[in-house]
Specification:
There is one protein chain. By secondary structure, this protein is an alpha+beta fold. The chain has a single domain (16-154), classed as 2-Layer Sandwich (TATA-Binding Protein). Helix content is 24%, strand content 35%. It is built from three helices and ten strands. The strands form three sheets. Strands 2-5-6-9-1-10 form a six-stranded antiparallel beta sheet, with helices on one face. A two-stranded antiparallel ribbon has the order 3-4. Helix 2 packs across helix 3. The longest helix has 13 residues, at 2-14. The radius of gyration is 18 Å and the shape is elongated. It starts with a helix and ends in a 13-residue tail after the last strand.
Amino acid sequence: MGMLTTHKISADLYDYSFHLIAIHSDLEDYAMAYAINSHCGLYLKRMKKDLCLDENMAFSAFDWEDEMNDMYWTLIANKCETEEVMPSIGLFENNVSKRIDHLVREKKEVDYFLKVDAVDETMFSEKLKSIKQIGKVITAYPLDTQNLKSKRNLIF
């Protein structure tokens, strides 16, 4: 038995594993965090720093360390709006074009990810059920992180 447990721990270090819930909703980020907090009994707070992929792309993130259950929760927006100013030609004013960027490009349809580290399976499915009951949530489902191409964007 001892051998197996040691092996499992070292395997986890190499393959950083976490659970992910994909959320489809047009709620604003702070409203989404608030709704999850009130429906799921979480205490997500806006992180001091946004998650930045480059100097233009910043994705809002909210986190909570659940010390009692030894779990770490992070709500991350999958979309961010970047404004690009196109220099004008002649008489016209500068054009500002808005671009939507995605943290996980292959999942553009997802609005938010709720990432859970050190997961308790029962608790995970309970929270998922609660998220599905939030009025403005269109759908929520677990995502298999193993096959996620942009997985490393979610490791921070």
